[in-house]
Specification:
three-stranded antiparallel beta sheet; two-stranded antiparallel sheet; polysaccharide degradation; cellulase activity; 6hp_glycosidase-like_sf; Endoglucanase; Glyco_hydro_9_His_AS
Length: about 500
């Protein structure tokens, strides 16, 4: 009896470490469609007749007028009504990279929808750099007054301040990421719209020239700092965006000058620091994966350090590897980093796992983790664990994508979703009038289909609380890499 009792206790301890709910299968194609549809709910500007998220309407139609510029369009970054160019450019880069790497796996209709989502971002980014070589717009909307209100984007009456950086003031981060976005998008449109592709590439080169010629962080400029900080300051330095922008221009143009730039500036701009992070503010891991493609295909010795850094990053993601450091996982198996909006790490890292697996497979190589080698299959399995967790294989049995599955967040931190649409209430809802909807315990009246929320905490807990923005707010840069990830698994659903 004693042995049976001990066995029962051990079994209970082991099973508590596993997700409590596991789906037999996921409809990755449905999730892909919804992940792209989400971007229509984030649109600013004049909405087209084929707008599918019908509870949204045109907004921000005077953006840029104080500078006699047209800055309409683009995306609201999250649940607010501000257009932050730094994360918007990163979102556009990741949507474009999704199309480049996985577009052929998408059904034709979804590929078109993904390209439309890319173009909604690039059309705006082109406007933001239309006054180069001496001026770049980096944001529209005063976030301090905006965040003090709870109102629909169609009603907003807060200041639509256009934040601008003029030469010789620096904006290497925003300009470098804009260059990356436009260069990547030029590749995404190369076949379907070569004229637009050429326009994007020409402007990417101009944006990079500003970034490189006026080095420094945009948030160090006194005239924009109060608007961009603490929301989207450059916390991790501008150097990675210079290398990131150059790497994308190298891939889009095959111009040797950008290859020289990556080789010559890698050490001085911190490429060898091997920072194990990838997101709107830190491009190091993505840079290493992107440049590794060239090394794997050419064995160019000068790029070997990028491959070594990419390997090192991958090894931290695989519990079986012999590396001394591993990225933290929740008890249910979700990649976790402190700071809120945690799913941004899971989706972006899953994307890198799949892209790197493809690069390794095409060149018949593997990742070296000390005495252990990791092949493409191992990397893909880790990515799949993240995807399945997000879609419902987790201790809560909840999908963290709005509108997908039987149980998903109902009270997301999002103004347009939580307030009655203008179809249901035509009269404006003022700045403070929306508070009653914010404080309501009921579900949001408008379903922001496809939105990925910030996600659970380090203990896998999630309360579906509108006020807890760290867990319940969706962002464009959580969704963007997930588009490519879902495209892969929709085409390869039976990966074990």
């Amino acid at each position: 009896m004693k042995q049976h009792f001990l066995f029962t206790i051990i079994l209970l301890l082991l099973t508590t470490q596993l997700p409590l709910h596991r789906s037999a299968s996921h409809d990755y194609g449905d999730a892909l469609s919804k992940s792209i549809l989400f971007f229509e709910g984030q649109r600013s500007g004049w909405l087209p007749q084929d707008q599918r998220m019908a509870w949204r309407a045109s907004s921000g139609l005077g953006d840029g007028w104080t500078h006699h510029a047209d800055l309409t369009g683009g995306y609201y970054d999250a649940g607010d009504n501000v257009k932050f160019n730094f994360p918007m450019a990163f979102t556009t880069t990741m949507l474009s990279w999704s199309v480049i790497e996985f577009g052929e796996m998408m059904p034709p209709a979804e590929l078109r929808n993904a390209q439309v989502a890319v173009r909604w971002g690039t059309d705006y980014l082109l406007k933001s750099i239309s006054q180069l070589p001496n001026r770049i717009f980096v944001q529209v909307g005063d976030p301090n007054t905006d965040h003090n209100c709870w109102e629909r984007p169609e009603d907003m009456d807060t200041a639509r301040t256009a934040y601008v950086v003029d030469a010789p003031n620096p904006a290497s981060d925003v300009a470098g990421e804009t260059a990356a976005a436009l260069a990547a998008a030029s590749m995404a449109f190369q076949s379907s719209d070569p004229g637009y592709s050429e326009t994007l590439l020409r402007n990417a080169i101009k944006a990079f020239e500003y970034a490189d010629n006026h080095r420094g962080a945009y948030s160090d400029n006194a005239n924009v700092k109060d608007g961009v900080c603490p929301f989207y300051c450059d916390f991790d330095g501008y150097q990675d965006e210079l290398l990131w922008g150059a790497a994308w221009l190298r891939r889009a143009t095959q111009d040797s000058s950008y290859l020289d730039y990556i080789q010559d500036n890698g050490q001085t701009l911190g490429a060898e620091e091997n920072i194990n992070e990838f997101g709107w503010d830190n491009k190091h891991a993505g840079l290493n994966v992107l440049v590794s493609k060239e090394f794997l295909e050419s064995s160019m010795f000068a790029l070997q350090s990028y491959k070594a850094s990419a390997d090192s990053f991958m090894c931290t993601l695989i519990p079986e590897s012999s590396t001394a450091y591993h990225i933290d996982l929740t008890p249910g198996g979700l990649i976790y980093k402190p700071g809120g909006s945690n799913l941004q790490h899971s989706t972006s890292i899953s994307f890198l796992l799949l892209v790197y697996a493809n690069y390794l497979e095409r060149t018949s190589q593997s990742a070296s983790c000390g005495g252990v080698t990791m092949g493409p299959a191992t990397l893909r399995q880790q990515a799949k664990r993240q995807v399945d967790y997000i879609l419902g294989d987790n201790p809560k049995g909840m999908s963290y994508m709005v509108g997908y599955g039987e149980q998903y967040p109902q009270r997301i931190h999002h103004r347009g979703s939580s307030l009655p649409s203008i179809e249901d209430r035509l009269e404006p809802i003022g700045c403070k009038e929306g508070s009653v909807y914010f404080n309501s315990p009921g579900p949001n009246p408008n379903v922001l289909v496809g939105a990925l929320v910030g996600g659970p905490g380090e203990d896998d807990a999630f309360e579906d609380d509108r006020a807890d923005y760290r867990k319940s707010e969706p962002t464009t840069y959580i969704n963007a890499p997930f588009v490519g990830v879902l495209a892969y698994f929709a085409a390869n659903p039976n990966l074990s």
